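Long-time lurker, finally posting.

We've been working with Putative serine protease PepD (Enteractinococcus coprophilus) and I want a structural starting point before designing mutants. I don't trust myself to interpret raw outputs, so I'm hoping someone here can both generate the structure tokens and explain anything notable. Sequence follows.
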Amino acid sequence: MHETWPPQPEHTNPSDRRDASSVPSGNDAPPPPPQFQRSFQPHSEPEASANHQRSPQRFGWPALLTSVALAAVLGGGAGGLTAHYLDDGSPAASSEIRDSPQLNRTDNVTPTTEAAAVASPSVVTLAVGGDQAEGSGSGVILDEQGHILTNTHVVTLGGQTAAAGVLVQTHDGEVYEAEVVGLDPMSDLAVVKIDAEGLQPIEMGNSQDMNVGDQAVAIGAPLGLSGTVTEGIISNLDRTISVASSAVPEEQDTPQEENPFEFRLPDNTEPPAAQGQIHLNVIQSDAAINPGNSGGALVDGAGRLIGVNVAIATRTEGNVGLGFAIPVEYAQRVAQELIENGEASHGVLGVTIVPTGQGSLSSGARVVEVVEDGPAAGTRLQSDDVITAVDGQPVTDPGSLSATVREYPGGSEVELTVLRDGEEFHETVTLGTMN
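Top reply, 14 upvotes:
Generated this for you. Predicted structure of Putative serine protease PepD:
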């Protein structure tokens, strides 16, 4: 029981794909990440803590990093990064970050400097290795127990492996083996865990308090350069994108939507044969996002997490000023369920829907059919109704309706705003659970 609509042409760009071995590292071939004795089982109980005690492994970091082309946000070009310091009129650093090793002076700092100093210790770099592929990405420390939030496509190398070895380098340079706690392909979020002391969890912000034009700072390891900070503004708060996913449930009839840009996840190699698409509601910013930023932090001016970087829009390789992050509220919900249950729940409405307009312009999602015995079957919804909002959040097209419904856990009660023959009404629906 799911939302479906007619498939549309898939956009691919073979010239954007390349083998990871062609990316120069500037060093000898790195050793492969550790091979784990067991693959991830979503419902398995954690082993005794003694079994997970691992002392930090020290590697030369250039040797640790592998090709960044496989497990990072796609956009191969690297731009220059310029630090702007204000000589006059800038405030002094706050007392809690005055001893930060990132600050060479504390008498005057920019808001970006302070945000980076606050959040950077909570952002880590991941090196991921499978049987036939390897790559890198970023992650965010959630708690002192060592749970780290990242992207599913980072941990699975774009869907190429379900049992990758993962190494994590923290801000202080220590390297740890990580275990996979849970993967959620429908949100492209994942949680891994390390055994480490003195971790600094990131402070949670609120994406719903953000305005278009507010400052946004991205922190991660683009192009394998750990601890990199890029700065911009929030350029849109209500964007829905469609990205490739290698682990979409079989019953999910995912459309291939026509877009002026390609919304791309990190995989530079040919995608697995069984590949669909997922829809995500995201925060759009113009902070530079490049390969390796996936799973890293998008923070506000106070260094609080407002999103998890996931994708860019591109017509060519490289950053074009359009980066996307999963809002922190959704990320927190999924992360908590992964930690507690090993999997996350997603709502399903049970209707077949199509756009209301032609081409790329649409206003709402038109109901073609209410699935028999589905969650919406007992409601007033019928064919030709147009769903325009979910709990007051506007719906512009089928993709945005699908993305919004998936953000709720199964069993949630939502209020739909529906337009029928020019008249608006509201209908309450208890969502089903996606299998």
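Before you design anything, note these points.
The first helix runs from residue 61 to 64.
The domain at 13-344 is CATH 2.40.10.120 (Thrombin, subunit H).
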